[in-house]
TrEMBL record, chains A, B:
The active site is at 142 (proton acceptor). It comes from Myroides guanonis. This is fumarylacetoacetase. GO terms for molecular function: fumarylacetoacetase activity; metal ion binding. Pathway: Amino-acid degradation; L-phenylalanine degradation; acetoacetate and fumarate from L-phenylalanine: step 6/6. It comes from the Bacteria. GO terms for biological process: homogentisate catabolic process; L-phenylalanine catabolic process; L-tyrosine catabolic process.
Length: 427, 427
């Protein structure tokens, strides 16, 4: 089936401003609440949210095999379970409905009123019920930077890193959509040179610039997803801020990995951009040496050229761009991550979220965390209000953006933004 | 409100064999399917499963504030969300209904037929939808044994261990109830003395003897659960086998912790035994030195005297008891684990599962894993069929049992059992 929704010549009768992340070639999926407190699954073109349940009830999806209530849900999980053929049919149909040359909905005011909402009149929700959240560690530059700072510059990468897409389990219960603010975590830390820990608010709250992919039901327990089929099980991608408390992490993480240093909050962008939409931006990932085991080998290109940016905005000041990176820098691909995750028979469900790990490039300006950008606090960043930052301060807002651009089209993820509030705790 | 269900003098008109784990003083909660494919929430007395939805529909829970369909569910999550007062009222009422001196149900054949099933006629399901699964590492003896084997016998415990109940996130999608068999995982391992990994079935599949507790909705994101209230948020406990592939673990776990070595399978016993039922077995936990931070300090006894056993049964042979341990050996209590887990504002939901970590005692016969029992394979265990074991072989069945006993009553968890099948993989 051809992805007609990607036609770069197509324009929509809905207005799309230049440099908007949501032209008719994007058609992402999300969940929103209207002013009337109706929750529904939808998509977005320009600055308009589109109620897909209303579209279905009005017959606009007729001919596509869908259950009656698949879009009258508060999560996308059931729609994602329908599989790739259905996702593609629905996305192609939406492109057709909103094409400049299709008058049906355009010229029906009553239908338009039921279907289309101004983006400022709706509130985005978490798009999926996330059963399990896994976070990988797939940027060679990030792993090298961390290894150089904390271990040995001459042996920065650990022995397993070039053989396996290292990953670990995260916490689903504290994954939040863009726009929800978080609190500085408290916990135990070990001051430098001390042997006894202290207790209090973290002094080193950091962001980690990541993307994440969302899976459909992949495999039964005890079965694996072969790498050549892995992309069929990926519904789409979001931006992810893997909030981290570096000082808590350093004290707690041996030997079982990060725990309270990470599970206080993880922010994601609310619109899931499909792999189909990203197809025109497919590109090569870094050459892998040594050659990985056969279960991790693949031919063709499996990265995407996605520009990534991080901004820090102090309270009552303008924002500063602190990082420019790109998804294509990642050493391990999403297909490799998914093939590895399931090689032991680990079951993957609809709505599972898999983070990329911090995406750093080779240039210092592309490092995806304050830990790397300030080299563990040694090189503070100058802010527009003449303050400096080594890590994130109370009332700073961290915003990540992601977009793809070629000669024909620009499309993207919008943003994931969240403000860090001061710590509060009772005990 | 008094826990009348614990009255040790009470007997039931349902037959309970001596040494049965399910006297009328237990009244655990679970989910089962009948021969007619009806799924329901239930409890157990002796060798009888009791349909709690049928009890409710017939009016036996009248006067207790419950929604109509709270037991007509395929998970206990909604009932758990009702909170401790409701759990206690329902458990007390069940004790009353099945008391030898209460004729109402006993003498109503039609009602009995709708409510009571022989245990061999039903099939137990996973009792809860587990949003997040956390596994702790709270046995000092286990952590010391592992540290002695793999690091330094003179500094076996890592510096953080006596200050924080170390824990990490596990995978919810592969948690299975007792009776489901599993497959030997395949993956990468690094043979001793080599620098290049190999790929194939794990050669060191192990069990870990654990218990786990199940929470109710505890706190909003950004809030913590103070230790003095922690037990109010614990619905009950199960036995847990934290299946582990030691050779995969050794290669993959640095620096982010265990991943594929653990997430191929985790088995739990299907009946949740409430903290109320365990109350008569409350006992002291080991003295803690150094004194923990105030957020981890508590008065009174917070352990329970639960005898634990592990059996290995080779195919076509009798089972061998390989480990006898006790829940009370754990250094960190469940209250401390939950207070620590939430001190950073990490949200806890109804149905979350929190494993204790391997429960080893000080005697070699009480070590809770093959890794410790055979001291990393150095001391094989002799089996009844004259074979030996260093780790678990294909077609071995591993069974864990847990029970409490005093002069008045014995009650327990039944068992968690699972057979390890040979590896299969496609790629």
């Amino acid at each position: 089936m051809i992805i007609t929704a990607n036609d770069p010549k197509r324009t929509s009768w809905l207005e799309v401003m230049p440099n908007c992340d949501f032209p008719i070639q994007n058609i992402p999926f999300g969940v929103f609440i209207t002013k009337e407190d109706v929750i529904t699954i939808g998509t977005r073109i320009g600055d308009f949210a589109i109620d897909m349940n209303a579209l279905q009830q009005l017959g606009y999806f007729d001919g596509i095999e869908l259950t009656d209530s698949v879009f009258l849900q508060d999560t996308l999980n059931d729609f994602i379970s329908c599989g790739k053929k259905t996702w593609r049919e629905v996305r192609n149909r939406i492109a057709e409905i909103f094409d400049n040359n299709t008058p049906t909905l355009r010229d029906n005011e009553k239908h338009r009123d039921a279907v289309i909402f101004a983006i400022e009149d709706i509130e985005m929700q978490l798009p999926v019920l996330i059963g399990d959240y896994t976070d990988f560690y797939s940027s060679r530059e990030h792993a090298t930077n961390v290894g150089t700072m904390f271990r040995d510059p001459n042996n920065a990468l650990l022995p397993n890193w070039l053989h396996i897409p290292v990953g670990y389990h995260g916490r689903s219960s504290t994954i939040i959509p863009s726009g929800i603010n978080i609190k500085r975590p408290v916990g135990q830390t070990l001051p430098k040179g001390e042997t006894v820990p202290v207790f209090g608010p973290s002094k080193r709250v950091d962001f980690e610039l990541e993307t994440a992919f969302i899976t459909t039901d992949g495999n039964l327990m005890g079965e694996n997803i072969p790498i050549d089929h892995a992309e069929d099980f990926i519904f789409g991608m979001v931006l992810l801020n893997d909030w981290s408390a570096r000082d808590i992490q350093t004290w707690e993480y041996v030997p079982l990995g990060p725990f309270l240093a990470k599970n206080f909050a993880t922010s994601i962008s609310p619109w899931i951009v499909t792999l189909d939409a990203l197809e025109p931006f497919r590109t090569a990932s870094p050459k892998q040496d040594p050659t990985p085991f056969p279960y991790l080998q693949q031919t063709g290109d499996h990265a995407f050229d996605i520009n990534l940016e991080v901004y820090i905005q102090p309270e009552e000041s303008e924002a500063k761009l602190v990082c420019k990176s790109n998804f294509k820098y990642l050493y391990w691909t999403m297909s490799q991550q998914l093939a590895h995750h399931t090689i032991n028979g680990c079951r993957v469900n609809s709505g599972d979220l898999m983070g990329s790990g911090t995406i750093s490039g080779s240039e210092p300006s592309s490092f995806g965390s304050m830990l790397e950008l300030t080299w563990a606090g040694k090189n503070p960043i100058q802010m527009p209000d003449n303050t400096t930052r080594t890590f994130i301060n109370d009332n700073d807002t961290v915003t990540m953006k992601g977009f793809c651009k070629n000669e024909n089209v620009r499309l993207g993820f919008g943003e994931v933004t969240s403000k860090l509030l001061a710590a509060t705790v009772k005990y």
